[in-house]
């Protein structure tokens, strides 16, 4: 039997691809979403992808167009050219930064746990009930909940994947806002902490 220290390591953000996942005889691997775990990105609908990347592109494309116009313009006014170059470069840098942030939003926060699948599902279901999340999608070992938020908190989607290695949690803004100042990452970590607490109780 595993000790608690062996059962899990909490709150580890996945900056690299997890190691290959072995298949256990007693718990067959759920392969439907394995590629998302290996690629470290949350499953997204096409609409999510379009709106997430549309906002950064609204800054990047005008910047590129303005830079192109300046480079091939006959305007000899050095002051106007300098201002235009500065503004276009600022737009390009800002748009590129938003694209980088958007890609980071799709990554999982990881919790290692070797509990049986039935226990993992029970913990996920209990936490969703405690927070009154509505189930948006469920397939195999993947849950996507909608958190409607409150007057002072924006609504978001909570995605939880699991396999025999552990839990993979991601939270992203339901309104596809690229800037959140780390609040969604903190919420992912909070969910991981809650799952960890439930795992500890099971292991006692």
Structure overview:
- The chain is α+β, with helices and mostly antiparallel strands and 204 residues long.
- It has 2 domains: 55 residues; 98 residues, 2-Layer Sandwich (TATA-Binding Protein).
- Helix content is 49%, strand content 16%.
- The protein contains 6 helices and 6 strands.
- Strands 1-2-6-5-4-3 form a 6-stranded antiparallel sheet, covered by helices on one side.
- Helix 3 runs antiparallel to helix 4 and helix 5 crosses helix 6.
- It is elongated, with a radius of gyration of 22 Å.
Largest β-sheet summary: 6 strands, antiparallel
H/E order of the elements?
HEHHHEHEEEEH
The level of helicity is 40-55%
Identify the CATH class of the largest domain. Answer: Alpha Beta
Number of strands: 6
Strand proportion, as a percent range, falls in 15-25%
Low-confidence stretches: 1-10, 12-29
Count of helical stretches: 6
The backbone outline, from C-alpha atoms, is elongated
- Which fold name is given in CATH as the topology of the largest domain? TATA-Binding Protein
Rounded to an integer, what's the Rg over CA atoms? Answer: 22 Å
Derived from helix and strand composition plus strand pairing, the structural class reads alpha+beta
Strand order of the largest sheet: 1-2-6-5-4-3
CATH level-two architecture of the largest domain: 2-Layer Sandwich
Total domain units:
2
The CATH superfamily title of the largest domain = Kinase associated domain 1, KA1
Mean pLDDT: 79
Distance between the termini: 12 Å
């Amino acid at each position: 039997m595993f000790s608690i220290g062996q059962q899990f390591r909490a709150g580890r953000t996945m900056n690299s691809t997890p190691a290959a996942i072995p298949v256990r005889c007693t718990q067959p691997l759920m392969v439907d979403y394995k590629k998302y775990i290996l690629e470290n990105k949350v499953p997204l609908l096409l609409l999510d992808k379009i709106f997430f990347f549309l906002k950064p592109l609204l800054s990047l494309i005008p910047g590129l167009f303005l830079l192109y116009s300046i480079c091939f313009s006959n305007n000899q006014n050095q002051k106007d050219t300098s201002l235009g170059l500065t503004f276009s470069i600022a737009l390009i840098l800002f748009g590129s930064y938003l694209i980088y942030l958007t890609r980071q939003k799709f990554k999982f926060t990881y919790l290692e746990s070797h509990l049986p699948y039935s226990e993992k599902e029970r913990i996920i279901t209990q936490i969703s009930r405690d927070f009154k999340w509505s189930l948006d999608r469920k397939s195999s070992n993947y849950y996507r909940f909608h958190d409607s938020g409150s007057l002072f908190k924006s609504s978001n989607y909570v995605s939880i994947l699991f396999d025999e290695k552990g839990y993979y949690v991601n939270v992203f803004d339901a309104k596809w806002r690229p800037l959140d100042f780390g609040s969604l990452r903190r919420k992912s970590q909070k969910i991981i902490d809650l799952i960890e607490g439930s795992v500890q109780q099971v292991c006692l």
